[in-house]
Amino acid sequence: MVTALGWTGREGRVVLAAMVARVLAGRWPTPAERTLLRDAIRLAGFRRAAQGLVLRGALGSAERAAVTTVLVPALEGLFTVAVSADDTGIGLEVLESGVWEPEVCGFYRRVLKPGMTVADIGANIGFHALHAAVLVGAGGRVIAVEPDRRNAALLRLAVRLNHGLAPITVVEAALADADGELTLSDLGNAANSGARFTHADRAVLEGLVHGPAPHFRTVPAMRWDERFADTRVDFAKLDVEGYEPRVVAGMERMLRRDRPMVLSEYAPANLRQLGGIEPEAYLRWFEERGYRTEILVSAAGETAPATAAEIAARAAGGHHAEVVFRPR
Q: Selecting from 1.10.3210.10, 2.60.40.10, 3.40.50.150, 3.65.10.10, what CATH number does the domain 102-327 have?
């Protein structure tokens, strides 16, 4: 059912339009209207969220009664993202600004070209996957891998609603160095759609819980080189909260064969705790395979060569750095 923030049909559209007009004129909703709004969207993102539609029940029976989905125009209307109204992480940022990780967006505009095949590993709700699909065009392809079922459902919804983009294949699984199963957890931060962690040993995740009522579930895991053995990749984005070393071990054949450019999150603490290696070893792994290391340095997507110490210093200022591995 499509709802207009609690009202349905023509009456709902009229009431919503009047409310938007008043807000834009500087007059905030009445107390009664505010009550209706509170459970639908965050007021901080109201102006942008009101440009889209609020869909209830978009994610299937498991979440149908609990989730409100907001369709948000992103990057000034370039594409539409489906976000959960209770998402305090990526969803809230997109609601407020229409942008997620502007430096990554700038980098995509610099390096992605029509016809490319992009692998988005840890696609989340699909903001970057959708942006990539715009840039590589109908002749390209995006493979988006995401183990969290709600995030994957939101991405599939957005794929259905955006037309004229490159085909996006959504794979609801986790990547690893072996086929099988992993444990997925929010570590007690369910409201942040970006806080999803995987590991083969549930006890490791239990030792990292930092919030109330953590959720754990088993998800399928696969090696890229097995699932997509014959798929050429031109660009890969990795953002799996520290499990990146296990992921690249499972896609080494593709990396050696295709020599794609790789954009990776580099979070030292996560690499130690979940990847099982020292952060510098992750950088060396790529360097030993003929890649040079750079970091993103601006919202325009500019990069600069960087040493391990320089990358660590940048990561210390904000939990992680965005590292580019460029084939020599």
A: 3.40.50.150
